[in-house]
Amino acid sequence: MASYNVSLASATATGTFVQDHHFGTNALHGVNIDTTGDMLPHDGFVAAVDALDLTHLRYPGGHAENTLDVTRLEDGQLRAEVRAFMDWVVENSTPDKMIQVTIVLPTKIDIPAAQIEAFVYLLLEQYGDHITGLEIGNEYSIGKRVEGFDRSTHPEDIPDSDFVSSMTESEYGISANRVINAAQDAIDRLAQDRPGLGHDPAILIQLGDTNGAGSAYKGNGSWDDANEAILEWLDQRAMDAIDGAVAHYYYNQSHVETQVFEGTYQEVRSLDQRIDNFNEHLGREVPLYITEWNVLNTNMNQQGMAAASTLLEMFEVMVQLDTADAFIWPLQHRISNTIAGNRSDDGVDLSAGGGAFKLMADNLRPETSAETGHVERFESIDTEWTGSNGEVETNYYASPYHDVIYVSLRDLDPGTVNFDLRPFLEEAVSVDVTRMTMDPASSDGLSDLADENGLNRLGRRYIDAEEYAALSQLAFFDGSDKNHIQTTGDGQYRTYLPTITGIVTLTGNPDSIEGYYFATETDVDPLFVTVTGDFLNSGTVALNMMPYDVAQIVIEKKWVQEGGSGDENFTGGIGMDVVLGRHGNDTISTGEGDDTLKGGYGDDLLNAGSGNDSIHAGDGNDTVFAGAGDDLIETGRGTKVIHGGAGKDTVYLDGNTSAYTATVVNGQLRLIGDGTDARIDGVETLVFADQRVSVTNYLNGLEGGPVDQPKGQYGTAFDDLLNGSSDDEILSGDAGHDILVGQSGNDTLMAGDGTDLLIAEERGLYGTDASEQVYRIYKAVFGREPDVNGHQYWVTQLASTARTHAEIAKGFMGSPEFQTTYGTTTDVDFVTLLYQNVLGRAPDPGGLNAWLSNLSDGMSRQMVVRHFAESPENKSSTHDGQADFDARWDATTWTDDVFRLFQTVFDRAPDADDFQDWTQSLSNGVSLESAVNTLMASPEFQASFGSTTNTEFVARLYQNAPGNDSGDSAVWIRALDAGLDRAAVVIGVMNSPEAVAASQAAVKAYVQSLGLDDVLEAGSGNDILSGGVGCDSFVFDTTDKGTHIVTDLEPWDIIDISDFGYADVDAAFAHMQQQGDDVVFLDQGVTVVFSGVEMDDITDDMISLL
């Protein structure tokens, strides 16, 4: 057994990084997707996509050229197969995980430009959020070449045929010019018709490929000639439209003589030179797209375990070529190089190559910090090693937080690899080692991909007489077993045995099949073995490896960033950060992980995020956001503002307890002494030089008796729901997508990082898109208005992205209420009921037939309901009802009504409790008439109005309610004399346009006199803020990057933008503008949309600059 002592000799950064879209796959029509019935992806394919977390798909693969003309329309609509697949894409996407699709457009058939243009237009109009690429044809030169081939008819329309001739470069260039221009026509027309959509997928043309039978340069030319020949047929518009060049990368080196990767041009298929040459002819640089890659299906000597290290090497090549997208082929297929099993599988059956792909997919993808937005990206590192002799291949990737190293034994003898870890351990905190080897239970010596019943096998491979002779010498070989050898009628030999060069003897003279190791058997399963050891101390890992085994070494490390003398910004991410600010006024944000932050000298902002962090503020006037987790905070000297956040946090002060005076101001504990002025909230423990004490005990021990702690709830780094109470309290979301509901009380709601919802009262978010959509889906599914609590719940779910519109519709349609109305209906009855319940009319024949056709072609009922709910007709018909619904249940709607009611009935403003009680009662469904009758029954009213005549009653109302013209009083008197209820007169007088206008200033002054109600502070991310009935303050800082929506700005509310440093309100107004029905504030990356507000509604006294 060979032994290798492998050490790093040199490492050079390449500047190329692994991208998420390097982990794409092909969704093949008829192979991975049903061609009849629901036309949806197979269960096994879906399971494999989920298991490998694949979100980039190429559809329908090369089948666009010969089995499915995707551009064909049916009654002016996308064909059923395309709709079914794209609907599946939509329904299986979430805002955080959008499935993206590259569509292959056929070129080997002369499809009219108008047909292509119409297809691309509809595709982008309906599914443009998911379409990222348009690939112009597939493998133009590959396949049999027939001179004078009739390209007028797609093979789909020729019975029992899927043949289409390959093309020369000139033929492809002519066709590509037509297809590109047609696609660009569609993109341009859609941009003109629907400018808000902004769909502009990448247009991808093929690199010249002289390997195929169709190439005019096969055997006597080069890809230089091929690239030139293709591009010379493109007009300038088509040339300008090209966004990338496509190649397929299939590894065809058999490694019969040596298993070592030698870095030859054959191994990389000259991809580097081919893309450079293409760009020279194009006159500008576009990236390379690899839309199919794998070990070549017929390269049997690199299948099985050999494929794992080959795929690792190929992936490194693609990354270092700065490839834009890469799509593995195939994910599931009845073929030797399948990644995740046979096309007939219902689940996932990873091959050895699939195991290597999964290791990379699980460990090399970019990962974005939800708290700071920093993206951890893995750079491919060029390396030289000692002690490997090429038999040990190493692929190395590095990020700020991890080193990931793949070690492969490219030798047909087992061996031990002693791998030197010491160059990677300086900041390391852990080392995890996984060895991928062959699962011996899965090996039977036959490369047939058979299922458990021995069915769905591959075809046997052809071998020559020399290999037949070599195989016949194996101890287990049986010439009568057709799995071992089969002679065809024309004298050729076929076998299911792996390649003779990949069959390794485990003993000197094996006498049975157990004495062999089948390194290139195609259908073996990978086995993942955890390698244990004290690697941080030993500095070495010993890997005992079988031929073609792969080991993955993941080293987690600290990311150390160190500042200088200037003002600097430091951003950490998902791992363990160590940031040393040094001098200057620094901003440090570290996000997830157990981090160390040292501000040093200067006035610093330290935001530690989640994790158990160690924070050293240093000298200066610093602000600390400790975030979720159990944090340790050293104050240092100077003025400190410290927010502990969730978790059990501890603040360290330099002096003895007696050195500090303590007060509680605005919910914060303030400690002054020993050169420190610290304002602290959300902290559980204080540590002085002479004692350690809980904050509760410290406050209770202050002179003057116990002091109440500021009550609060603090979120985590995850998605939190914080519900307040009737008390005055702080709700702080920290990171994640949080929902903060203040309820009653004077609350402070702090958004933190992430997309958050801040609702000051029991309910909010009225007037938002989410409110409108939930109202419409209720009407569509149940044929009724929502109940108020159900509406509020689903609006918060939708607005917070916890649920998608599709998920809400799916949940509604599974309810007993829906099933009672729609569940057992035929498609005709189902659609007819939708027309009646949603649109309030009978279906027109054309519409009914169109929806029946959609359902017949595989569109789900859920998708039909969603289309009805969001149709322009339904939006129009429900607009007034939805607006009335929001107004009825929104407490802020009733603020001025309650004031005018008291003014009209009692000739006074309501006291604070009455104001709060009646606004809440009216917003909870009590009618205004009932409220008036209740007040009219009160002793106060009876003392003033009880025995009045109708004339006296109206006169008194007009006296109390300002702005009304007494000349109109006769109308009300006559109505009362005719029997009208007095409550109706009160409502009429208080709500007259004159009374409303005349009372506006008084209402504003009254609400302001009640004092500040709630404070809603935005954070970074896209937040929605809903105030309450009182005077609310909406606070926005320069660090609150994102787009925020204020749903209900009232004339008595405050817009606090003091952090922006404006000299006066005019400077603030200069950053506001009217956009449609909204006022939009925009400055320094912070956008605030004040929904349903006019510029004139925002007055100087509403702007806080201090």
Automatic annotation (TrEMBL):
Chief place of localization: secreted
Lineage: superkingdom: Bacteria
Domain DUF4214 intervals: 809-876, 933-997
Localization per Swiss-Prot or TrEMBL: Secreted
Entries under InterPro entries matching the protein: DUF4214, GH, Hemolysin-typ_Ca-bd_CS, Hemolysn_Ca-bd, PBS_linker_sf, RTX_toxin/Mannuronan_C5-epim, Serralysin-like_metalloprot_C
Presence of the UniProt keyword Mitochondrion in the record: no
GO molecular function: calcium ion binding
A Pfam family: HemolysinCabind
Matches recorded under PANTHER family: S-LAYER PROTEIN
Listed name of the protein: Hemolysin-type calcium-binding repeat-containing protein
Organism of origin: Antarctobacter heliothermus
